[in-house]
Fold:
Amino acid sequence: MAPTAIQFQLHTTDHNCRARRATLQTPHGPVELPAFMPVGTQGTVKALTAAMVRESGAQMMLCNTYHLAIRPGEDVVADLGGLHAFTGWDGPILTDSGGFQLFSLGKSTKVTEEAAVFRSHIDGSLLELSPERSIAIQETLGSDIAMVLDHVVALPAPDKDVREANERTVRWAVRCRAAQQRTDQAQFAIVQGGLSERMRIECAQQLADLDFPGYAVGGLSVGEDEADRNRMLDATCPVLPADKPRYLMGVGKPHDLLEAIRRGIDMFDCVMPTRNGRNALAFTDRGTIRLRNLKHQRETRPLEDECPCPACGHSQGYLRHLFQAREMLGPMLVSAHNLSYYQRLMERTRQAIESGRFMEFYAERIRDWTANA
Amino acid sequence: MAPTAIQFQLHTTDHNCRARRATLQTPHGPVELPAFMPVGTQGTVKALTAAMVRESGAQMMLCNTYHLAIRPGEDVVADLGGLHAFTGWDGPILTDSGGFQLFSLGKSTKVTEEAAVFRSHIDGSLLELSPERSIAIQETLGSDIAMVLDHVVALPAPDKDVREANERTVRWAVRCRAAQQRTDQAQFAIVQGGLSERMRIECAQQLADLDFPGYAVGGLSVGEDEADRNRMLDATCPVLPADKPRYLMGVGKPHDLLEAIRRGIDMFDCVMPTRNGRNALAFTDRGTIRLRNLKHQRETRPLEDECPCPACGHSQGYLRHLFQAREMLGPMLVSAHNLSYYQRLMERTRQAIESGRFMEFYAERIRDWTANA
Structure:
């Protein structure tokens, strides 16, 4: 097996739960875990400059293979110096495989053993994504971590379909591994299995045997109950190797992050802080603030008193005005705040794990968020 | 007469033209002249944080009285700490009087000797703007420089109408002066007179006799020929007192700025750098760059090699991608670049005047801009 481009250093595992404090070394620097990756779908975290993303405290960014392959095309990104030069983000970058977009955007997606065939959401042209093609695109883009192409099925689905997709996901992971050319990019495998603990465990075991440098839990955050998601994490994480990073894809609210960390997850990505920020919803320790509400019109306090983000240099009244006046600065500032909030939440989580008091921190946070919900 | 809130220090007047190098001291710090003020219509320079505006090199910002009075209302701005606290811009701020918006937005505007009556462009409600009301709003907003309410007429217009508006503008300037309460805000009078040199001179002389702390040239940049505008400046500037700042409202392209500076203008404001930036048009020393053009798709160079702005940390190809993908970051970055370009142009202009070579600098700039037009 090729030497991996990343190293995972596990520092501490909490005594009262599965929460882990670790560091992930990548070709573009370290990422302290647990970590939240902001999403730069089209090569930009929406409404933020790369400097603003850095100032939020983020260490690693996610970009979407599907979107970048369709526009501007991975060859254009490569001609412009690869994903790091292209985006101006010199820290670590993870790219997804395109599998989730096939599932979420591709009404006309057809999946065979060879590849997924689908229509571009931009111009309707017919495109094909195989495991080999997904890896080739991600290698051309030049991310630090590439995700294997997985087969996500819409839930609920018959056991037979879930099992088939599961088995295909494992076979495709093997093909992704075989397609690897770059030594400065690490591949993460993705555990599928719907909402069946048994199938999640089977998939995780098979992938664990393949000894990938990292593992993701996929096919969640697609509308399932929180209890179901947590049940899947409870089943899956213990099966995954302790000496590899674990990434829960597409999750979630601050509360969801702590629930998953408690169950052994190290990495997250989600559009929630930026999408909600663009829609005037701010995350704080006292729950969410809907800035469009009239009660904030003359509010001189910032969203949070101690927050160092650029939004919190302003009153809530000003932020509200920006949204009422449809000024771009509103989405910019509240996206920056929300990302900063997520990053500070991860920083406090890391400190709590280090000092052996994660479950107290978790309980405090749940209490304060819920009290103001 | 009340002590004025600002001081104008004239350092140099060019030997070969009327270009001036000066400093304007305001309650919120100095402004080196000639200066370009970015426009923060609704209390934000569109698509930029206050920090980004500061990093562009801007020292003074303009906000629009009409827009802020309608939304969120000047009382809300005051409750949120006044315009500086509201916007997070701690440097000098100039507010216009609302007169120009009555002219440009107010199809239904009716002007009497007492006041202008118009309908809100937001909710259609009937509003009245008198000289006294304009000053009261601007004092409530708390800008460093307030503009008197003037009467702008659409051109071409019969001499009689221009003369009437001119005389009313002078009478309204007197009423604005009489309405002044704050000692930490200076009023600038506005010279009108359409495209008649005689009426421009008459208006300027009458306002000069009133000894305002500063003077603006208004009613231009409304579609007139460049030659007409320059003719008006040639007539007006010599009549204005040499020891007061001169502000050409709403102008213009980089070329227009140098033409006006050559004729004795010290201050400018214009939406052009930000409006064009939002529309993928960048200003450079080699003329404008239309980023949507396909030829920039794989261009690895930045807009300008030596530019310190956040856009110029990226390739032109990336900037183009952002516009193609309709990402907010495109307007953000190119607005920042254009403002930075305008500020660097003013900085180089000031240096050229100081070293007695403004006309050489002017000739170089016109040549390079034109060669690539």
